C-alpha cells in the first residue's frame, strides 16, 4: 500500500505545505497511521549554503553532544535549533526533532572530488550506524524532511507544514508491512539532496543493499526504501550518470527489448545493465525521487504499483492516485499513466 | 590369505519364475556379474557395482538388487567402510581410488536453507504471464560507465565492454574431459547446451573435431597437463578456463589411466596411445598469483582479447582470499568447485575429506569481493554438488552468477552414480572408451534428456523467482534476504550471512 505524491513548480515558485497535506490525507485509505512525512526543496533560503541536518534525538542531554562533537570535528555549526513542533492528540512525540545548519571543512577530505558531500554522507552513516539515540534523517542543502509516526494531517500539524515553502514537495502516507512503524522508518528518505518516497516493496533489496554497502553506504533504517536514495547518490553523484540513465539502471528494459534496439541504444542499454545489474530494483514499486534539479517518478518494470502524472501550468504532479492530485489542483490537465519502467522527469525551466 | 575376502556389497538375484533367459543381463553387464552355465543364468554378485544397467534392461523385471546385509560387530567408530578400507590397503599397500563425488554423510547446507515467497503485500509474479529473465552474462563488467552527449542530445557510450558469455540460463555444464567420459557423452551434452543456449566445459582433454560444430558453446580448459592445448584449440572455445584445482581432489593433479587412452583420445589429447595421462598437482608455470596473472594475460593476448578467461579453484577454506587475487589477476570469472564435486577418479581420502562445501565458499568469496568493491566486475560460477533447481536458486542467492552441473548432467544421460568411473567399464557408455559400451549411449536421445533437464530446471528457477517477486536473475544474485537458515548453527549462518527461519 502506501500513498505517494510529489509536486514541482518548474519556475521555482515556492508553494506552502497546505495543499500537499490535503492531497496526502486524500489517500488515508493507503495508510495506517503509522507514518507520514513531507520533504520540501527551497525551504531554508536564509541558510541555503549550509547542509541542513535534521536529527531525531531520543533526548538532548546525552545524545546531542555526540552529534555536536562529530560536526565540530568536521566543520562549523552555523546555527542549530529545535525544530518547532506542536502537540497533536493522536501523535506520540517519541523523538525530539532538531536541525543543524552545517558547513563542512573540505580540507578534511582533500582526496575527494566532492569533499563536502562526502563529509556529510559519512557523518550521516556514522551517526546512524552508531545507534546512540540520534538519527540524521535529512542532510541536504536548502531541503528539509518532516516526518513522524502518525496520520498525514497529524504529522503536518505537528510540524505546521504550511509554515514552510518549497518548489518541490514530496509526501508519503505509510502502510508499513515489513518493518514496524517507527519515526526513522517513515518516508521521505533522504541523503544529501536526494529524497525518496516509495510505494511498494523492493524484493531485490538484499542484492541492492549488499551492492551499495560495498561502496561504503550503510543501510540503517530497517527498510528497503533508503537504499534508493543511496543508489541515486552513488549513480548520479559518484558515477556522474544523468538522472534518466540512473533510472535506466534501476529499472532497465528487458533483454528482449534491448536485443531489438538500434545499435547505439542497444550498446548503451546493455552496458548499463551489465555494469549496474546489482543496482537494478525488482518487485512492486512506484517511486518519486527529487533533488534540486529535478523530480522523477517511475515504477517497476511490470508496473505492479500505480503512478499517475498530471500537469497544470508550471506544475508537475506525480502521485499514486489521481484524486490526490485533484485535491491539490482541481484544474489539473493532461492526466496520464506512464508505462512500466518509463521515467517521468520534471526539470526546471529557469 | 590371512585376511580373506570382505563380504559382498550388493546381492543380485533373479526371480527364476519371471526370467525368460534372454541373456540381456549378460550382454549389458560390463562388470561380468552374469554368465550362462548350461541351462541357467549364473550370478557373481561380488562384481556388482549397483550400476543398475541389468535392472534397466531386463524385459521381465526379474532382477533384484539389494545392499548385502552383513553385520559386522556393530561399532560407532569402526564402521564397515573404515574396516574394509583397512583390509584393502593392508592387502595392496596402495591409495584407494574412487569415482564420482564425496560419499561421506556430511550435512548438506543447501538442504538447510529455505527460499522465500511473497504473500499479500508483495505480489508473486507469474512466469507464464510475465517476462522472467534468467539470461546471464559471464565475464568482466565495467565498474562504471562513461557516456558522452552528442550535439543532437543523443547519449553515446564511451566505455568499451569486454567480451562476455551470454548464457540463456545460469545453468551450465562443467568440465568433464574426453578420456574421462566418452565422445558420445560429450556430444550429447554439447548438443544439449547448444539447444538450450548455454555452455559446457571441454575438461582437460582437448576438443575432439566432432565437437567443432558446437564450439560456440564450449569453454576450453587448460589444466596442468596442457593436454590438447594449441592455438587452434584456444581459438575454438567461446571462453578459456584455467583449472587450478578441482573440488573432488583439491591440491592434487589428475590421472587418466592408460586403458582409457584409446587412439582417438590420444590424438585429441596429443599424447601417445595407451599412455597414462598425468596432470601434475601444480601448473609447471604457476607458483604464485603473479604467474597466474601472466598466464591469464598471455591467453588473452594469444586470442586477441576476444575471449573471457575463467579460473577454476577447488573450494578450500582460504578460497575468499584466493578469489580476490584471481579477480585482480585479470580473470573474467572465478569458478569455485565445492567438495561435493564429482570426478572420474580420485583418491578416496581426498574426495571425502579435503575442501569445503560450495555454499560456504560462494558466500565467503562473494562477501570478500564486495568488501573490496569489485564483486560486479568479475563473475562467480559455483559447482560441486548442485542436484536440483533449488540448489541453483540458493547458490545464486548466496552470490553465484551461474552454476556448473556435472554429475546431474551424467545422471540425465543414465548414470546411476555407481562410482566406478575410473574402471573404463561404465555400462551406460558414459565414463568409458570401450567402443561397444560407448555405442550404448545414443547422442540423439541423450542430448534430448540433458536439454530437458536444463529446460526443466530453468523453468523451476523462473517459478522460484516469480514466487519471490523477482523477474530478473540480477536481483536474485547475492540476495541473501531471500534465504533463511533452518537448523543451521549460528556460526555457519554468519558465514552464509543469512537470518534464521522466523527472523
Ligand atoms: S535380462 Fe532378465 S529376463 Fe533376461 S536373462 Fe537376465 S534376468 Fe533373465
Ligand atoms: S558414469 Fe558410469 S561408471 Fe561412472 S558412476 Fe555413472 S554409471 Fe557408474
Describe the overall structure:
- The complex is a heterodimer of chains A (350) and B (503).
- With 350 residues, chain A is an alpha+beta fold.
- Chain A has a domain of 242 residues.
- Chain A has ten helices and 18 strands.
- In chain A, the strands form four sheets. In chain A, strands 8-3-10-1-16-15-17 form a seven-stranded antiparallel sheet, with helices on one face. A five-stranded antiparallel sheet of chain A has the order 11-12-13-14-18, covered by helices on one side.
- In chain A, a hairpin with a 2-residue loop joins strand 15 and strand 16.
- The two termini of chain A are 35 Å apart.
- The mean pLDDT of chain A is 92.
- With 503 residues, chain B is α/β, with parallel strands linked by helices.
- Chain B folds into two domains: 62 residues, 2-Layer Sandwich (Alpha-Beta Plaits); 314 residues, Aldolase class I (TIM Barrel).
- Chain B contains 15 helices and 23 strands.
- The radius of gyration of chain B is 24 Å and the shape is globular.
- Chains A and B meet through helix 5 and helix 9 of A and strand 9 and helix 10 of B.
- The structure holds iron/sulfur cluster (SF4) (2 copies).
- One iron/sulfur cluster binds next to helix 1 of chain B.
- The site of one iron/sulfur cluster (SF4) has 14 residues of chain B, from helix 1.
- Chain A: Keywords: Glutamine amidotransferase, Transferase.
- Chain A: It holds the Pfam family GATase_2.
- Chain A: GO terms for molecular function: transferase activity.
- Chain A: This is Glutamine amidotransferase type-2 domain-containing protein.
- Chain A: It comes from Methanoculleus taiwanensis.
- Chain B: Keywords: 4Fe-4S, Amino-acid biosynthesis, Flavoprotein, FMN, Glutamate biosynthesis, Iron, Iron-sulfur, Metal-binding, NADP, Oxidoreductase.
